[in-house]
Amino acid sequence: MRPTGSLHLGHLHGVLKTWLELQNKYECFYFIADWHALTTSYETPQKIAEYSKELFLEWLSVGLSPEKSVIFLQSAIKEHIELHLVFSMITPVAWLERNPTYKDMLQNLQNKELATYGFLGYPVLQAADILIYKAQKVPVGLDQVPHLELTREIARRFNYLYKTEFFPEPEPILSEFPKVPGTDGRKMSKSYGNTISLTDPPEEVKKKVLSYVTDTMRPKKSDPGDPENRCVAFQLIRLYFTQEELKEIIEGCKKAQLGCVECKKRLAERVIAGLEPIWKKRKEVEGQDWRELIIPGIKKAREIASETLEEVRKILGFTHEF
After folding, report:
1. pLDDT tens, 121-167?
2. What's the burial of 196, exposed, middle or buried (CB within 10 Å: 0-12/13-18/19+)?
C-alpha cells in the first residue's frame, strides 16, 4: 500500500479486513510502498517519509501483526530495485503501454506530469516486489487481475530466456472488495476529499455520516423510500448491520416508519463502535518506537530477498567477486 495519507473506511472494508483474514491462513508479506509513492508524489518526498510511519501505525491499529506477518518498508530492501532493473531489461515497452491504469491516470491526473519513465515502468517494479519473495498468491480484486497477469508474463519471460523454472507464476486470490461510498456518493477516496478517516474523532465521524445523501425522492419522513436503489447511505449501512437488521431498516423505510436522520444516527453509532477498538490500539502503539516494531519484518524480508537476488545473479552469470 502506498503511503499517501490517512487511511479511511474504504481501506478498512476494501482491503485491510481481507488482509487480516489472510494473515491467519498464510505467511503474508505486507509492505509500505514508498518507492511506488514517488511515481506520483516525486515533488514532495518528505511527505512520503511522514506518511510511511503513519501507515505502519494504522496497520497495527487495525490488527496487522508483525508477529504473524512480514511487515516492512519497501525502500529498506534494496533488492527490490536490483530485480526491477533486471526485469526492466527484458520487459517489452508495449506490455507497459497497454496497461489500462496507466492510460486512465494520465487522463485523470492532468495536473501532474506522469509521462515519466518511472510511472510507465511501475508495473515492472510491482513484479519485482512480488517475485523477489517467490510469492505463490496475491490478493486482488477483479480489476487488478491484468496487473498480476503482467507479473506472470515477466516471470514466464525470465524463465524462458534463461532456461529455468526459477520464478513461480503467482495466482490471484480473488476478493470481493465492497464499494465504500464517500460522503458525496462517489467512491471513497482521498483525492475526492470525501473520506471518513480511521483517525477522525467521534464527533467528526458522526458529522460526516449525517452528511450522507439519502433517498432524494423522500423529502419527508411520511414519504415511502427505496433504500436499496436510491440511498447512498444504505451502501454504508450494509457494512455495519446484520441481515436481520437490514430487513428491518428496508421495511421501515419503505413503509415510511423509519426516518432518514434517525437511520443515519444509528449508522453513526455503529461506525463509531467499529472504530473504537482501532482508536484504542492506536494509543497503545503510538507510545512505542515504530522503527523497533518494523525492524524484524525488514530483516526477514531482506534475508529472503537477498537469497533470491543471489540466485538471479547466478542464473545471469553475474558471479564476479571483488
Report:
1. 999 999 999 999 999 999 988 878 888 999 999 999 999 999 999 99
2. buried
CA distance 261 to 258: 9
Within the chain, which residue ranges are assigned CATH 3.40.50.620?
Answer: 9-180+289-316
8 Å CB contact between 74 and 36: yes
Q: What percent of the chain has pLDDT over 70?
A: 97
CA atoms within 13 A on the CB side of 134: 14
Which CATH class name applies to 9-180+289-316? alpha beta
State phi, psi for 157 to the nearest 5 degrees. Answer: -65, -40
| Average pLDDT estimate for 275-297 | 95
Q: CA 141, CA 11: separation in Å to the nearest integer? A: 13
Contact present, 99 and 146 (Cβ < 8 Å): yes
Q: Which three cell numbers stand for residue 252?
A: 421501515
The model scores a pTM over 0.85: yes
Superfamily, domain 200-282: Tyrosyl-Transfer RNA Synthetase (1.10.240.10)
